[in-house]
Design brief:
- The protein contains ten helices and no strands.
- By secondary structure, it is mostly helical.
- Helix 3 (23-31) crosses helix 4, helix 3 (23-31) crosses helix 6 (80-93) and helix 5 (53-65) runs antiparallel to helix 6 (80-93).
Length: 169
Amino acid sequence: MYAARCDEVWTKSAAIARLQENRLVQEAIAADADVRRLFDTLVAFQPEHGYVQAAMYATFRNQAATLVGWGARCEALQTTRHYEAVCETILDLLPPDVPSWCARWDESRDVAEVYPQLADALHRVLGRDPTEAARLELAAALEALAREQRDLASAARDHAVRQWHAARA
């Protein structure tokens, strides 16, 4: 499921369609009302500023661990197959991190190399090839955005770790 979306643009409607087609997940939803509530929450989920997919996945996966797999109350759901299907579907339903291009930005500082479409858009707006000053300004803006996203991701990871430790205490 998740692998199928790596080469395509993620949409919630496509993820919901995959959820509805997954036999194991549908069995879990039918067997336990709490699993249904978990997926209802996931379908309604809207990311907020500072959203980090990995942190949200860990939160929902921890909830699922008590509902499917070895920790399930319902004996029919105490299988590795159900646990893996539910976890994979949780990941599929969570939108990717918004500025997912930030990691690629670190690999190269040449905007035209990393994002040809940005250079093309700049060319269309200016009506000519972007000047070196325009390229540098765009690069600086993208670098500042990437830095801000890294700071937010770090804060979200720290928050998730604190929550995990608090839950275990």
